[in-house]
DNA sequence: CTAATATATGAACAGTGATTCATATGAACG
DNA sequence: CGTTCATATGAATCACTGTTCATATATTAG
């Protein structure tokens, strides 16, 4: 006879958000789960940038960057501003900053043995820019 | 002649963390970027659980859950505890709580028009559990 | 030791997603 | 208008990843 967990299941089921909400949450994190996009977001923490500047910075195709910017924009993480032929992208709110910062904290704690004295492996601290 | 952004590039390059660090950060978020894993983490916010209880909760195969738990464990997001034949998983630290909470805040703000009065679509608030 | 329960793991399959290439849109300038 | 620079987009490709199935390991009971 398999063992019983009805008690815990009932308790957890009660407080678990809806499927839809949890999917949305996963989708949001999915966006942060790509090196290119994280780099773009991190760069935009410092300053707004045009598409070709970002492409230059990351050493990637303008097309690749444009595709990723579209994804970031659809998620309301970045917004654009036109100036002649150039389009400048910037962060649309400050959640990016806090989400990224939390991620870093976990990384640092995870690798504490690598940095026993200094708790911050980041030179340019998150949040110091702009 | 293509336009110039040396000034901005130099500034941003200076404060951009290393490639390795940014990859690690993306890898961390990648883990949150899956519905099944988010659900598991969310469930563990409430209480520790054994593998088959989680499988029951999510209506998924024990194998599928086990595979995902391995990924979560490799990232140091969960830890296990043996009790006879049963293995109980629990969150290994509180970063999960804060990261998830930040994600929610962004979602809420993004869909503010859907919940104009009440800013929290979550019944069981994050952080109330355990 | 054998059977039963609980979990882990490896291979295979299917779906997803990031990049590239080619091309389209859009703006400024002569 | 036609050209040039800046960005966007669609199709194709390639790699990655989540699930399933079958099976292995591990613990307890008899």
- Count the E strands of chain A: 3
- Beta content of chain A comes to 5-15%
Low-confidence stretches of chain A: 117-130
The structural class of chain A is mainly alpha
Largest interface pair? A-B, 62 and 62 residues
Large-scale geometry of chain A: elongated
Written description of the protein model:
The structure is a homodimer of 130-residue chains. By secondary structure, chain A is mostly helical. In chain A, 56% of the residues lie in helices and 11% in strands. Chain A is built from six helices and three strands. Chain A has helices at residues 6-15, 19-32, 35-46, 51-58, 62-74, 95-110, and strands spanning 49-50, 78-83, 86-91. In chain A, strand 2 and strand 3 (86-91) form a beta hairpin. In chain A, helix 4 crosses helix 5. Chains A and B meet through helix 1, helix 2, helix 3, strand 1 and helix 4 of A and helix 1, helix 2, helix 3, strand 1 and helix 4 of B. The structure holds a DNA duplex (30 and 30 nucleotides).
